[in-house]
Amino acid sequence: MNLLKEFFIDNKCSYLANKEQTTHYKMIEECDSESCEALIERGFRRFGQMYFRPVCSECTECQSVKIDVENYNFSKSARRILKKASHLQSYIQKPTLTKEHLKIFKKYHLHMSVKKAWEYTETSAENYHSSFIAGHEGFGYEVLYYDGDTLVAVDLIDILENGISSIYFYYDPAYSYLSLGKYSLYNQIKLAKTTHKRWIYLGYYVEDCPSLSYKSEYKPYLTLKGRPSEHEPYKWF
DSSP letter at 161? Predict the structure, then answer.
C-alpha cells in the first residue's frame, strides 16, 4: 500500500441540509485487499484510489453499518423481488467503461435529480474512470445486469476477505418497476452466503437522509462504534 497523500476538507454536508461536514481523505496507490478491508472496517469508503470518511466534530449522524449475512433471512417481499427480476442475466467482472455505462449513468442521475432532488452534474469518461475503474486492484468488480442484449444496471462492489463492500449502483430508470436497487443488494447477500462472506458493508446510514435511511431495512446489521484510527482496534455492535 502506497499512501500518496492524506488531507481533511470542510464543506457543505452531502447528506443533511444546513450542515457542514469534515471529511478525512486518503489517496492510496496499489492498495491491497487486506489494507482496504482494514479501512472499510474503520468506516472508510472507497471511490477509485480515494478512501474517505466523515469526521465531523459536532455530528455523528453518519453511522457505518454492515449486514450480518450469516443471520440474514430473505423476507417474502425480497423473494418476490428476486422472482420478478429473475429473467435478468448477470455477469461479474473487473470494472469497465463503455458508452453504454455512461449513457445509463447519465439517465440514472437525471432521473434522481427529479425523484430525489439530487444535484445533477455531467460525468465525463475521465471522472467515471477515476471514481469506479482506478484503484480496483485485485478486489474491485462490477456486476452487469442485462435484459437480453440490453445493459440495464451496474453494481460496483469490492469483494474482500470477510465481506462485500457496496460501492455504487445505478440503473436505467425504464426498469424502475423491477426494484433493481433492492434486487442488486439481495444478489450481493446471496453471493456473500455462497462464498462464505460474513458481511455486506453498506457504507453510511443517516436517519434523516432519504437516500441513505433505507439501509435500516436490512436487518440484522451492525453499527461501527466511533471513528477508530488505522492503529486502533474497532468494534461493531
Answer: S
